[in-house]
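Q: Got a minute? One more chain.
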Amino acid sequence: MRIILTLTMILTMCFTQISFGQDELKIEKIDNTQLIKILNNSQLIEASKDNFLSVKLFIIDNGTGSAGFPNSEVSYNLLIAVSEIDEKPDQNLFEIGPFYNPKIVEWTSEDEKKIEIEIEYGIYKNRKTVKLKININELEIKK
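A: Always. Here it is, folded:
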């Protein structure tokens, strides 16, 4: 008798949880044109996660001919998403560019709250490098 009572209580709790666990599904069209462009045209190229920060690099093209060459090549901007590792993290998004043919050379970490990224870019015979310092609140070019 106890087994039947226990099973009845467990099943009742399971079905109650299922029936009250979901609300109606909602569909919403987003009208933010910048967000639409980013999500449709960006591609994750690198990511790093340590004990304090998560950094994700996305690349987004600036459109045909944006590199300024007659062959219609494109330049790119980098989107850098930075998030604390926490239940309610501070998060930021930075955009830097334009870069022609960017390549990530190296990731380094000064301490747990700062990351440096070295990026090489430019035409084949005249490549340049730039180092970016990233923390949760800012992105700066290291000189």
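A: Strands lie at 42-49, 53-61, 76-84, 91-99, 103-111, 114-121, 128-134, 139-142.
Q: Perfect, thanks.
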